[in-house]
Amino acid sequence: MRLTNYEKRMLDGEQGEAVKFSMEILTKIGESYGAETLVEVKSVHAAAVYPELLASVEMMEGFANRGGCFRVPTTADPAHQPCNFNRWPDLPEPAEYLDKARRILLAIEKMGVIPNWSCIPYFQGNTPRFGQHVAWVESSAICYANSVLGARTNRLTMGLEIAAAITGRIPCFGLHLDENRKGNTLVQVEYTPKTLSDYGTIGYIIGKHLSDRVPVIKGLPPQTTANQLKVLGAAAAGRGAIGLYHAVGLTPEAKTEEQAFGGNKPEKEIKIGSKEIEEILGEINTAKSEQFDAVLMGCPHPNIDEIMDLARLMIGKRVKPGIKFWIFVSFDVLATARKMGYADIIEEAGAQFVEGDCILFFAMKDWGWKTVLTDSAKYANILPSEPTCVSVIYRDTAGCVAAATI
Ligand code: F3S
Q1: What pLDDT was estimated at residue 366?
Q2: What is the mean pLDDT of residues 38-58?
Q3: CA-nearest residue, atom 1 of ligand 1
Q4: Interval 236-269: pLDDT, tens
Q5: Which runs of E-coded beta strand occur in 241-282?
Q6: DSSP conformation class of 44
Q7: Integer Cα distance of 220 and 217 in angstroms
Q8: Which residue, 246, 243, 242, is CA-closest to 211?
């Protein structure tokens, strides 16, 4: 790789052990992907997750113990938060597991992370401008940054983003390059999404059929919001490995279909109509009965308007006995919901907020849950797999509230 003099000095250790270690990782990865240079990144979104994996704890501590210090603004994805440790005595979490979770948080905080603990950093101040290079993890956030903001990041594996935060650099390959951002498949949407979950269902179909291509989506309503695109992208990125999509007339690299394809001919074309939606709902819903142990909402973390809509649905309702009703949410959005009174309505109905966290970071596999109800296509995709292995009932938000409350 061609490095600048400044980068060469970083690699030689002029700026300390953590920078040298990070540069060694970045240059090796860059070379393996054929990157010719590094690019400067304007922000990082980092993950301090998976406390069940000792390797993820040791990796984070390895950077911190070498004197790692973040030099670009670096936000944090949800992680298992001390305020949620063993919060439900009937659903215990092993002390050893919680110790690892605490160690990860201490290590990343020591390096200067902005502790927003949310998978929607782009709504919370980490909002790169069009064309800026960033180094993000979290598949849904990556998809949003590339597609809706027009920023540039690859789907990074954990650890690389920490090296990027310490050096302010990332290898220039993949979605950092113009030629890899052109659309190569066409998605014709012939269905009018009515609920937020409908956008998730469309994203799920795209992820299933198009894997890691760059879809160009036609036919979404012109009034589609950023939040709806958030949900669509999260499901596409979770079900497949979509890092970038273009929605004609809605996203910045797709003012027209021609611009989105950039001269490419579509290699593949799929149609999403009512029939395709019906068929996929049969696949997403893996539960054999209507019984469930918990309702899980907030994937990706909700905006305040989603909390407002949920509060409206829950006025005068009561969560059925024996059911856990959890909404995963960022600290910021929950603080706003408390000020506005929406949190009170939801909590009075018997639901609970889980701040800065995600169900994936709880030691849930030992809880004996068999089935969960969710309004998130991304959760519906992930939860039936290891390590959680539960069946899923997938409904829109109103459907979840109707099924879980009296
Ligand atoms: Fe966020 Fe967890 Fe979903 S990190 S996108 S709530 S799987």
Answers
A1: 85
A2: 88
A3: 300
A4: 999 999 999 999 999 999 999 999 999 999 999 9
A5: 246-247, 268-272
A6: E
A7: 7
A8: 242
CB atoms near residue 327 (< 10 Å) = 25
How many A from CA of 196 to the centre of ligand 1? 16
Q: What are the tens digits of pLDDT across the range 359-372?
A: 999 988 889 999 99
| pLDDT for the residue numbered 48 | 81
Q: For residues 191 and 198, what is the distance between their CA atoms, to the nearest angstrom?
A: 9
Question: For residue 301, how far is its CA from the centre of ligand 1 (angstroms)?
Answer: 7
How many H helices and E strands in the chain?
A: 15, 14
Measured from the CB, is residue 234 less than 6 Å from ligand 1?
A: yes
Q: Distance from the CA of 17 to the center of ligand 1, in angstroms? A: 33
> Reduced to 3 states, what is the DSSP secondary structure of residue 152?
strand
80 lines ligand 1 (CB under 6 A): no
Residues 104, 67: Cα–Cα separation, whole Å: 15
Regarding beta strands 185-189 and 215-218, do their DSSP bridges make them parallel or antiparallel, or are they unpaired? parallel
Name the residue with the closest Cα to ligand 1, atom 5. Answer: 300
H-only helix segments in 296-386: 304-314, 331-340, 342-348, 377-382
| b/e sequence 150-187, b meaning 16+ C-beta within 10 Å | bbbbbbbebbbbbbbbbbbbbbbbbbbeeeebbbbbbb
Cβ-contact 123, 304 below 8 angstroms = no
Structure tokens at 40: 């400067």
- Answer with the residue of higher pLDDT: 77 or 388: 77
What atom of ligand 1 comes closest to residue 298's alpha carbon? Answer: 6
Range 192-210 average pLDDT: 97
Decide: 371 and 392 in contact? Cβ < 8 Å.
Answer: yes
pTM of the model: 0.97
Of all atoms in ligand 1, which is nearest to the CA of residue 234?
5
> Ligand 1: which residue has its CA nearest to atom 2?
358
The values of phi and psi at residue 252, to 5°, are -70, -20
Mutation choice for ligand 1 from 360, 361, 383, CB with most ligand atoms inside 8 A: 360
pLDDT tens profile 126-169: 999 999 999 999 999 999 999 999 999 999 988 999 999 999 99
In this structure, are strands 38-40 and 169-171 parallel, antiparallel, or unpaired? antiparallel
The C-alpha atoms of residue 359 and residue 376 are separated, in whole angstroms, by 12
Q: What is the Cα–Cα distance from 381 to 287, expressed in whole angstroms? A: 13
Report the half-sphere exposure of 18 (CA within 13 A, side-chain side).
23
